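Sample log: V-type proton ATPase subunit a.
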Amino acid sequence: MPPLFLLRSEDMSLVRMVIPVESAHDTVAYLGQLGMLQFRDLNPGKSPTQRIYANQVKRCGEMGRQLRYFKSQIESAGILIAARSTIEKDVDLDELEVKLSEYETELKEIASNSARLFRSHAELTEFQLVLLKAGRFFTSGRAEAAFAQREYDDFEGSMDSPLLLIEQEMQTDPTKGQLGYVTGLIPKLKTIQFERILFRATRGNMVFKSSVVERPVTDPATGEKVEKSVFVVFFSGERTQAKIVKICDAFGASRYPYPEEPSLQRQMRSEVAGRLSELKSTLDAGTSHRDTVLAGISYQLDFWILMVQREKAVYHIMNKFNMDVTRKCLVAEAWSDFICEKQVQEALMRATVDSNSQVGTIFQEIRTKDLPPTFFKTNKITGAFQGIVDAYGVARYKEANPAVYTIVTFPFLFAVMFGDWGHGIVLLLATLYLILNEGKLGSQKLGDIMGMAFGGRYVILLMSIFSIYTGFIYNEFFSVPFRIFGESAYVCRDPSCKDSRTAGLIKRPGYTYPFGFDPVWHGSRSELPFLNSVKMKMSILLGVVHMNLGLALSYYNASYFNEPLDIWYQFVPQILFLGSLFGYLSLLIIIKWCSGSQADLYHVMIYMFLSPTDDLGPNQLFSGQTEVQCFLLLIAVVAVPTMLLPKPLALKKRHEERTHGRSYGILNAGSDGESVDNEHDHHHGEEEFDFGETFVHQMIETIEFVLGAVSNTASYLRLWALSLAHAQLSAVFYDKVLILAWSYHNTMILIIGGFVFICATVGVLLIMETLSAFLHALRLHWVEFQGKFYGGDGYQFEPFSFATLEEDDQG
């Protein structure tokens, strides 16, 4: 098979580098800029804290935390992160660490002082509200409290008094007759419950007054804006005061002193106003200083973040190296793209010169039996289709890549189910908008659905183009046919066409509609049977071709990896089995189309198994068909044991020969220990052979293919089902919504009907049906196509690259 772009993954090689310690950092940094090596972890048994550069990684993590703290402070202050106008020389990591620590200490000190001043400001603001609002309560409150006290004295010792043990209380509380008060603020939502608890605790011997503050007040404890009420509680007795204080603390009420003398009240108001003014000036000065510091940080923040991320990534990679203490060097292994080795060596030489190392890095390619990673060079068009394949599984190294064929087959199978050139044009216009604005949209944060649509914009582009093509074949424009390619091949029996719906039309001799379906089928009584028959047979043909393509790729895989057993005992019987049954069915469909026969293909295929030697009668399509069917059936029967038995037996024989040869090699080696070691190394790592397990695996593969040949072929009938459903939904929306609204000859009804038609078309046909057809096409590729040849058990080539760090940071 000729080489194709993307068909096989890039050639990979395992390289080993012996790097001097003094140039290790610069070497890894230059390789990170190059982005062409995937380093292997040579210390898999060590925890992160046991690695060589664990302390450096920890330092970078701490600096990253400090930078995130700076970024959050800058964002909360509403300061824009300034872009760096000039490229400054990279500062040393130690210098940056000291600078960040100083900035963090300064900012935390500013924040601590500001929080303390802010709390004092909030408390003074509440105190000012108490001074302003509590005065009006005292005249009425004291009168009510005195009246309550006199009532209490009148009913002293009464059994109906709310107080118990009055005499004992009077003896232990001689100051009970004196009136006291507590003032403060409490959240508005707690006022009613607060008053109720006070009433119960004091047995009703108190007067509670409150007034709602017009605007929300900053709470000193939380710093949040809260609606509060100023309250005053008048009471009598020290015990009652103690209860009220505890209840205030439990409800989170703020208590403030209130002087009784008017002169002291005026003096206190003046003092509070002066202190608030001073605190406001101090807070503004602190905020201005903080903003100045943050503005200076913001100018270099992005550069520092990128620098710390790179340093952390470099030390993380260096932790994967082995330390050779005797030679004071680091040993690294990495997978490299074969064609990039020259660029890697140039980067190593540049790192040696820049670090002033006396010894250069030793770079050598090593042989290994480990499976290399898979790497395909894609662009923004092929990358989307490669992503569809990788979602199923990453290709094994050098395995045939289904993405090469998926670029064509995926949008085509989608279009077979979605075919309508009107819907395809709408889909194309939406996709062109995404493509023409991809620079603008790519820099924005899109939602999940919009992000997926934008990422697959080139997939949708091909899907829309193929949908327009199949729409022309189906001759459907929002379910309306057009005579684009010429006149119909059918004419009326007379010029009046009165009997066109009863007697039908007649075909013009020697004339066929040039392209696609004849528009005369639309709306006829035989439209649905005709479309059902054509689309169902077309689905089978497409499915058989698609599955045979998968089998052909399995042959090229086996041929590339030099696996003759897979060719002779897997590919050959599989292609014969599939061709003798469903290839034969496809041939019968083509013969029936070409000959115009009325043969029943269901009958032919069923009795091919039940009675292969019986005469076919009117269902015979060509002479000798019975003998051909018997021969094909024999091939299918023979193909099953051919898939099942020879391969496990051949693998068993191969294993016995290798084991037999190895035993003789050890005996002939004698005392030559080196030969024994070489032989051991040659066979080291070979998997043990278990014939029972191999046979069971082959039996499962055989059963799966035989049953899957039937189920997979039937699975392609979804092309027919979804195509028919799409056409019928489109016809229903057109006939029962748009045409029905037009028939009323009313402008308002027409506008409403047009709006409903547009919403139904966009919501159901252009969104839901697009998603449905996409998922069904995805299933046909993952299961029916890739299941024939694709292992998908490889792993992705993920080179160490600073560009990836920048993309993740932007995301």
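Observation: The chain is about 60% helix and 10% strand.
Observation: The radius of gyration is 43 Å.
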